[in-house]
Amino acid sequence: MGGVSFLSTVPSFTNINNRQHLTLSSSHRSVLIRCCKIDPQVSENTLSFHRRDVLKLAGTALGMELTGNGFINHVGDAKAADLNQRRQRSEFQSKIKLSLSKAVKAKPELVPSLLTLALNDAMTYDKATKSGGANGSIRFSSEISRAENAGLSDGLALIEEAKKEIDSFSKGGPISYADLIQLAGQSAVKATFLASAIRKCGGNEEKGNLLYTAYGSSGQWALFDRQFGRSDATEADPEGRIPLWGKATVQEMKDKFIAIGLGPRQLAVMSAFLGPDQAATEELLASDPQVAPWVQKYQRSRETVSQTDYEVDLITALTKLSGLGQQINYEAYTYPVERINLSKLKL
């Protein structure tokens, strides 16, 4: 079966009625405001009190009460803290991606290893026991040395080197292996998308970058990027949860994907994660009537300029996979902001 291989490019007041009373109460006091019907024959200029004045007074009273109780100050502090945390995480993640991008660019031959490393680390998830998943357990020697992880040691070595660099500039503690392995998988995917764009531009890197910027699906990574704050496992995950992708039958692969909540569609779109020879994997997958239509769909998509169907579905599948077994800590990698002591400033 023909087709372009993914890896081939890499070696919201109610109305106030007449004579109603509006009472604002608090633990300290209550304020009674009488709202009377306005005589339409009375000139507006002669009125000393309008409904809008009532609303202003009500708002003022409420505002004074909230301020007196310190509520507004607390809300303001909370919002400021949340914004600071978001900014810190975003900046840190950007630096991580830059480091990984450079590392992958320097060793493009490790892209298949990084893809399978991200897959196998997450694929240990077991729905029945809610154990395993994208927890970085594959870093343990007893797990990386298993048969299903053969050939992934060099990819893990790249992760280890990148971690040293990233930890050296982190202000919010060391990066977890769980996060780093999945982010490395993302970087490998992006590198391959970019390489495909360059290939379509006859090898012109500048034009390829412009093509990928114009037609790529970078905006689809938002949910993946939000899943940042995975926790590391403290021991290797149990054996027997990952198939030997190079020897597994299509049915065995389908069964594994179904067991973690995915299916034939995701199996087809993630064919590049199942070993270094994507073309051979796709040929095998195309022999199954449930998987074949998806294999063909993604092969056709890869031949287009935008690759939209393929890119969007791959990013969606990887996003779901990379969150398996994890409760994301959205405060991870944040740190206290040093406050300025105004009393010590010389004016």
From TrEMBL:
Family annotation (InterPro entries): Ccp1-like, Haem_peroxidase, Haem_peroxidase_sf, Peroxidase_I
GO CC terms, sorted: chloroplast thylakoid membrane
Domain annotation Plant heme peroxidase family profile: ranges: 96-275
Gene Ontology terms: biological process: cellular response to oxidative stress; hydrogen peroxide catabolic process; response to reactive oxygen species
Gene Ontology molecular function, alphabetical: heme binding; peroxidase activity
SUPFAM superfamilies: Heme-dependent peroxidases
Keyword terms, alphabetized: Oxidoreductase
Protein name (record): Thylakoid lumenal 29 kDa protein, chloroplastic
